[in-house]
Amino acid sequence: MISRNYLGAILASTSASLGGMTVVLTRYLMPDSDAFSLPGARYFIGGIVLFLIFVLMKKLKPLEIVDWKAILFLSFSFYVAFPIAFAAGLEHTTAARGAIVFTAQPIITLILGLILGTERTNLFKVLAMFIAIAGITVTLSDKIGDEAPNALMGDFLMFTAAFFNSLYLVKSRNLIIKYGTYTFAVWPMLIGSSMMLFLALFFGNPLGGSLSFDMHGWMVLLILAIPGVALMQYIFQQAIIMSSPTGVSMTVGFNPLWSIILGAIILHEPISSKILFGFLCIVVAVILANYEKKKVL
Hints:
Elements: H1 4-29, H2 37-56, H3 68-89, H4 95-101, H5 105-116, H6 123-140, H7 151-203, H8 215-242, H9 245-250, H10 254-266, H11 273-289
Helix pairs in contact: 1-4, 1-8, 1-10, 2-3, 2-7, 2-8, 3-7, 4-7, 4-10, 5-7, 6-11, 7-8, 10-11
């Protein structure tokens, strides 16, 4: 029988695979949009879809006033700061490289978890962390030239996105357990995306062209919003309560797998041996981070 920890890892891996698709599709739409309008619209549409489904299912709970401060902070971290850095980073680097740089998240998650006392480490997690670092280092040594002349700026922004994602992983677990995955998948998404769309009025151009897609562009945005937000976030929340923060974050390695494949197919981006080596390192790190020794009775 599959352990709860590994089941959580499977769900997180599925979510990360959907995330890999969103990396490529976000990069595909970014030339016609901006880093505020596109993520704001994407998460708001996804939030509305989940809201309608869960209202019909009678699964939503009201949020308690005592938790609003923490919920506002998490909503900003995950649905404003993270997507801004994520979308802006993909303006400066390739989908495959950006996704693998984003896998710095497990390292950040482990460090934050140790500092905040929410994570216990072991030899396997430490080994996984170093293997992940090795893979990222090799990937960053890859020269991509004209494909992304400002790749280092993109790398920095993707590291920043990873930090805010890790912060959400470490701090949201107790609230997800309290309210359930249905409620906590919806309210922070609607709150955060509303913040993002408000900021877009000042720092983006949602009313003047940033969301003026043709029919094909809107189809891509709906894919980003429904499977790429609604489905991805729901199974991601389930994974958080079934596995450790570091174990979940290690599965982000499946994000670059689909970024590499779809980036080559849709964006015609090159795939180098260094990028493939980096991906292999992340897969090994995922397995090690979720390994648990069976107790002998």
